[in-house]
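Objective 1.3, modelling of assemblies. Example input:
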Amino acid sequence: MKALMFGWEFPPHILGGLGTASYGLTKGMWQNGDMDITFVIPKPWGDEPKDFANIIGANCTPVAWRDVNMDYVQSRIGNVMDPQFYFDLRNHIYGDFNYMSTNDLGCIEFSGRYPENLLEEINNYSIVAGVIARTVDCDVIHSHDWLTYPAGIHAKQVTGKPLVIHVHATDFDRSRGNVNPTVFSIEKDGMNNADHIITVSNLTRRTVIEKYGISPDKVTTVHNAVEPLNEELLNLEAPPGKTSKVITFLGRITMQKGPEYFVEAAAQVLHKVNNAQFVMAGSGDMMDKMIRLAAKRDIADRFHFTGFLKGKQVYEMLAASDVYIMPSVSEPFGISPLEAMQMGVPSIISKQSGCAEILDNVIKIDYWDTNAMADAIYSIIEYPAMYNELREQGLAEVNQITWDKAGAKVINIYRNLINR
Amino acid sequence: MKAICFYFQIHQPFRLKHYRFFDIGNDHYYYDDFADDDIITRIAQRSYLPANEMLLDMIRQNGKNFKVAFSISGTALEQLEQYVPEFIDSMKELADTGCVEFLSETYAHSLSSLYDPDEFVAQVKAHDKKIYQLFGQKPKVFRNTELIYDDDIASMVYAMGFKAAITADAKHVLGWRSPNFLYSSASAPKLKLMLKNGKLSDDISFRFSNPEWASYPLTADKYIHWIDELPQEEQLINLFMNYDTFGELQPRESGIFEFMKALPRFAAEKDIQFWTPSEVVSKFKPVAELAVPYPMSWTDAARDTSAWLGNTLQQEAVKKLYSIGERVRLCTDRRIKQDWNYLQASDHFFYMSTKHSDDGSVHSHYSPYDSPYTAFTNYMNVLSDFMIRVEEQYPASIDNEELNSLLLTIRNQEQEIEKLHREVEMMRNNIVKDTTGDFPIDEAPAPVEEEKPAPEPEKKPAPKKKVPAKKPAAKKAPAKKAEPKKPAAKKPAPKKPAAKKPAVKKAK
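Predicted structure (tokens):
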């Protein structure tokens, strides 16, 4: 089966959970066998893994004819794409886009991030999608998150193949209800045009059905999973001088992630317990406010901010942690507690997180219930049995949550669409 | 001829209120009275009271031919006395018919049989005393918490003088053998064992109103027919179930009460009798010995103790609890004793089970907590506070042996003091007879005060209250006649134990 996927991020150059999930799902589907996946991203760097998916860069896809030779193309984009494929794509240019700003290869430049002119990039991406859809043969089209819905719709119109959209988040999650009308309309349009919608949790599924008015029989939940960690990360150890218990919040410090509840719970625990330290790792628009709040609660001496952590630093932080907390106000899935569990860190998550639907060996609380959060923290750091049980059972549980199972579900959805 | 032996279990724990870690050291009241009241009243109204009514009817209609046995935990009795006293009256009425036998068990429905033999014996005695006080019967047959049983328990039970014990029919123990015989214990051959007939018991308590069940609907006719069809030599059918089967697990509208009422008539037709466990034990002979090296129970699919001790949370909590057992038994504080009982209820550990699938749903059905982890957290917070209180009485820095010898000294001194008091009293009386002047009275309080100064400095609020209370009594005395002094002077003696405890602290 051939699938044409549109995504925005792909490891190792990722900005959030979307890239990790796209990668994991693609690989999981590939593991099921008999899948030929073409994955389009705005701007590949050349170091993306290519063994299970054919990566196409939108910024390497010509939309305007340029008379260039093979060697020139090889020298320009040979590191990210087969030059021959450039010429295949060039043969399928379907309109005159010379009025747009294109480069020497006739391609539109993309930042591949979330720039100010994001809406323009989304539009350009869908123009490029037209060329790709005419070139690449596929049985089904799969769009990851709202940024790529217009591209998916365009590809569907060109090829007539069924469109699956994958809702990793909705604007209701990102904005605590104050949705951006433009984003909403793009999302709604994508959902209306989709032949099937995949959501990452039942929580998101309900949002899609209730807030976007989509028929329930068109929406299926496929929960995310995690990639097994490599030995190097698993063997990371806590720093030798560590004497006190470390309780960690790891994520963007934004309204969606509920950082203020973490500070309030920390204040309660620290007023009772001496040998504990709280760490807020990450950055975001609420960071300064959180620093002030910690100072106001008089816990700043044992409440630390690390700033943004990346790559291995994240796992070093987890290796040093005794408790991981994700008090998200609204989390479509939330992959980070699963990563903490892989590192053997007992986790506390909000009931408003999608991953709470599939996890048993974690402590689930309401994000606003700072009392319950504080109780749970205290219990884990004071009662060894609690720590050990959550650590061991959590590890065993998370090792069962693998992408190939999620991949099989998605393939099943494809089959139903194609055979319809 | 066959015999059916009915036994019903009634147990309710004292549920813990939401107890936060801030409360540790501050709040010493642990119970959710509202939930206890609510639950026991509801179950009593829907099940226990109508079921008692039913049994009473059945006994009256069938002469003395219908008999049953009950096992009611001490904590359940306390709650019933407090919230549904009419149930106790109705139970007394049943007891008076002579057709009801009460079984022995641990007072708190605890797991002490597995962890703390001394506590086990103490609790069984406490329970039997309670039963005797309420219903005038001395239990002769023992039934452990949730039918937990193994060879070690058998020896302890036999040593306490019981003729028989009731337990479950775990497949891994019985193998090919049938539960429909009387067995005896391998470790204490004189102790007889009655095993639950799991299939027939569960037909009533779990499957009765289930329309998906192949044998639905179950009628008394059909049921007695099944029993009658059993091989001739299998004469004993033990039907053990929770009492709330009637009206709660199987709702009234399922016809469960009518089913029960019809049983004796059909049983009589087939010459099947109803016996109490004591009758069974005296009329049947055990056919074989049963060796049970590992504890079994009647709970969950595994029929072992994993429902309470299956994961590390449960093991940790139980171990912590029984680690202070010896200390608590040294305490004389009534509230500590009471909390100690309530905290031992096996239910607290049942709530901490992390089992999934069918067993898991049973656990979460009964649990007041939304997850086993919350159950553990709450329990451990309460236990932490309880341990602090025990520690305050007897610091852990003194080992048990030392503590015992100190306590012994204190007790000896108490006796000594009491003896001296009596002497003083006697002498004073002699003096009073001779003279009625002030002289003897001044002397009288002296020995009393001599003992007091020692305890006073350490004991914080309690002795201070007592000392002034006593002194005026002694001082006022001179004005009055000598005789009223007797009670005043005697009082301090029994109070001593409380005032003396602090001396231990000083000793370290």
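The mean pLDDT of chain A is 91.
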